[in-house]
Amino acid sequence: MARTFRICSTSDTHGHVFPVDYDADRPKDCGLLNIAHDVHALAAQPGPDGKPIPTIALDAGDTLQGTPYSQLFVAGDASAADREATAGLPHPIAAAFNAVGYRYVTLGNHDFNYGYDVIARYLDALDAECLCANVRDLKGRLPIRRYAFLDLPNGIRLGLTGLVTDWVNVWESPRNLEYLAVTDTYAAAEEMNEFLKSRCDVSICIYHGGYERDVRTGEPQSDTTENRAWQIAHDLDFDVLISGHQHISMPGAVINGTATVQTCATATEFAELIVTLEDDGSVHATSRLVPVGAEHDAEPYATLLPYEERTQRWLTEPVGRMTRDIPSDPLLDVAMHGSELAALFNETQREATGTRVAASSISGIGMETGFPATVTHGAVSRAYSFANTLAVLAAPKSAIKAALERCAEYFDLDADGRPEISERFLKPKVEHYNYDYWAGLSYTFDLTRPLGDRVTALTYSDGTPLPDDEPIEVCVNSYRASGTGGYEMLAACPTVRTVERSMQDLIIEFLQRHDPWTPAIDGGPTIVY
């Protein structure tokens, strides 16, 4: 007789515990506490025989970073008063994961953002087992396993492993990887696949990484090894692959016999997979994405509420002023004509490093382009939601031009010859944050020219030419310095110096030194089409 079980999976919950939209500052049907209610309700439903079918909950990482809540009480930015008010409470994220009842989790790249000790505190408080076959703990104290076996009540034996994209090594500061070694993702996947397949009835891989090919057609969508879910599913023998990292809603596909799903970010949905083991040993699955509902249980909501109350208080605290609001204009408009918000980031970077030229992007929650005249902690967190530090690169003119050519790829021309945002930056994942705004330079993009040959003019913003034979200092954030997003030419530039402080802190300090700040743009593009 065929036997079945259920998987409820999430990924990229990014610190969303309470049903709150921090961007819109209002309640929202989301968060781990609401997911806990929904998963328990689903698991209690009777199956075909009138009894609930076995259910396990899995998560594919990027858990600890992403909200003001986690910034304060996981990263450690809370004030002494806030720490005292929440002393003795359970771990702010692990307690919510425990409420869901996750059985196994893996780590995501952003879970390394705060270093070894923060990971240790999370895993120590977690009921779930952490599986990550390509992460080695050089101190030997973290409860991370390479694989696990689980025998379900109906006799099905599961074999599970976890993986994280090895691009952690590209993005993460070496200080945050101290005592940790992240090894080749695919090599670990191959090893675990070979080990598990003869030792279990159903093999499951939980992978913090996305699809490098279209899951329906197999068409390539990336030429890097950041995402390898399609290759893992296609080339190996896992029965189920839980994917993450790209923040896309993918309700289910079968790639060469492997069933795979991915949920979007911020705990707004979870995946339900019904997996069937046939008498002949074959495995098949159906899957769907389930929107998170409006209900949550009384606990641990009440226990964790002091964290959220302190977070809401912190969000409204003023930290600086500007002479006026920065208007919220469409992304295409600001990309073509310049962004005063990106200009604020660039001025912060230039002042912090003493450079003449800087580049930054719009990468905050919702990709919002506006900013209020009365600046609060919440406004800064929404506008700049990552804990990036700064790097000063020695960049020759050729590398700067190549980086600008990458920016010029952001645009296509529509049927009427008007600029539009290219699907290169929209699919499979929305990547507006990979379009950079440059300060201190003036440059021209001719969109009628082929990709790679669109930059037709490049000078300093005062019109003086860049030197042809020697590099200049350029300030970018740590993410861009890694070369990610198509900026390999910047990763090839020597790093002259770094500023190992969060951009969020630097923005606040900049505004306090220039109170009130008048928004202005130095340099930027001229678009020809």
From TrEMBL:
GO terms for biological process: nucleotide catabolic process. InterPro entries: 5'-Nucleotdase_C, 5'-Nucleotdase_C_sf, 5_nucleotidase/apyrase, Calcineurin-like_PHP, Metallo-depent_PP-like. Keywords: Hydrolase, Nucleotide-binding, Signal. GO terms for cellular component: outer membrane-bounded periplasmic space. Residues 336-491 form the 5'-Nucleotidase C-terminal domain. One of its GO terms (molecular function) is hydrolase activity. It comes from the Bacteria. Residues 6-248 form the Calcineurin-like phosphoesterase domain. PANTHER family: 2',3'-CYCLIC-NUCLEOTIDE 2'-PHOSPHODIESTERASE_3'-NUCLEOTIDASE (PTHR11575:SF6), 5'-NUCLEOTIDASE-RELATED (PTHR11575). Belongs to the 5'-nucleotidase family. This is Bifunctional metallophosphatase/5'-nucleotidase. It comes from Bifidobacterium moraviense.
